[in-house]
Design a protein that fits this description.
Aldehyde Dehydrogenase, Chain A, domain 2; binds 2-aminohexanedioic acid; alpha/beta; seven-stranded mixed beta sheet; Aldehyde Dehydrogenase, Chain A, domain 1
Length: 513
Amino acid sequence: MSLIISDILDHLHINDTNEAFSTSSNWGSSPEAEVKEIFSPTDGKKIASVKFATADEYNSVVETAAKAFKTWRSIPAPKRGEIVRQIGEQLRANKKELGTLVSYEMGKSLQEGYGEVQEMIDICDFAVGLSRQLYGLSMHSERPSHRMYEQYHPLGIVGVISAFNFPVAVWSWNAALAWVCGDVCIWKPSEKTPLTAIACQHIAQQVFKANNIDEGVSCLIIGGREIGELMANDTRVPLVSATGSTRMGKAVSAAVGARLGKSLLELGGNNAIIISEQADLDMSLIGAVFGAVGTAGQRCTSTRRLIIHESVYDAFKQKLVNAYKQIKIGNPLDENNHMGPLIDQDAVSLYLASIEKCKAEGGNFVVEGGKLEGDAYASGCYVKPCIAEVENHYEIVQHETFAPILYLIKYKTLEEAIELQNSVPQGLSSAIMTQNLREAETFLSAAGSDCGIANVNIGTSGAEIGGAFGGEKETGGGRESGSDAWKVYMRRQTNTINYSKTLPLAQGIKFDL
Ligand code: UN1
């Protein structure tokens, strides 16, 4: 095991990673469980071996969670918030170690690893406040001496399926809200990043234990697609929140829908920035380059397309080419590097295949891509960020390739730019760079961007947790984290109370006995 990992695990008091599931600070697994070895894309070294949970283990986790729900749901929401506050405090105390582990296990830059833990801290803070604000409306009844109002109750077990690219933050968006709402969570992290999940479960568990909360409010289950399928088909899990590819989301949605369960989907993006003739080009450059190469292009909010006005196209292209020459690629733990590796060698193959496909369709690469070779890149997961001039309708441009490939597209009028921006199957994030109020407001209007997120003079990635996060079309329609996203984790109940001495019927219906 690498030195970095053993230090961090020691710090987090984790002495066993060789387990398949956890409902408490005790870990378990059956002897026949399949063992998977996990390697860091950073240096190719083995990080840990983890066991995949069996279907029986999945069942026992669900049973423990269901039991815990019966107690947890009756603890007052502000008291549940207090426990989430303590989890936030523990994350603050362990930000450096957890951020480093995220960076090492997943390959994002150390700054972004810390940023991801900061998102967790922020959502905990948000959830604490929310725990005193789970408001329902009250209405005036049409009948005398009647009171009508609505209240929100917890749903039960929330299944969280998360992706490798934000291995911990997306879980916390779900878990922190679900917990204050009175739900319990079963988390199936990406099988590519189990160690960060184990670390988070460990941190959360210590807090639950210190507060004498029954085991099962926070559960972790390590496994592959089979576990996700069990969850999606399980009527004991009223809500499944899934982050990942559109393909995975369609399967989850179909299974959950078939049993009339709820799903919250946060799937693929194909995000564009429109660079207007009235853009501040220096600002645009930072937004575009961070959006395209940050997290090595593996955010669902990564910038994949730049739609550039013809009058500034050549100048901006030149700026991009120059900027790409400055990008340092290498070990993400070295803060001098801007970009780390892709998650694994399969991702490298997909990146290379996308480049070939783009070339075959007529794409003109102004910054060439390719796999990086040499000792510093021995894991085989490092690639060069690249830029291609394309047409929006190319098949490859319509796809989300989870890699640092940036497409340039030229436009003449704002209407055309918006049309291009919207002409993809996905609808997560979008942005316009302009100093012109009319352009900005048109982009944000009903006739503008069709995405869940639309920014002005900010890139497509790096959303704050306070807003509702998610997107339309093939992005799945779900909303997580801020605003009123909490409502998805609760069921609404309308209550009408008659405090009169008669029983009048609504709609003036007479029914005398
Ligand atoms: C994701 O890539 O799944 O807006 C989430 C952002 C981050 C979250 C991305 N706050 O880029």
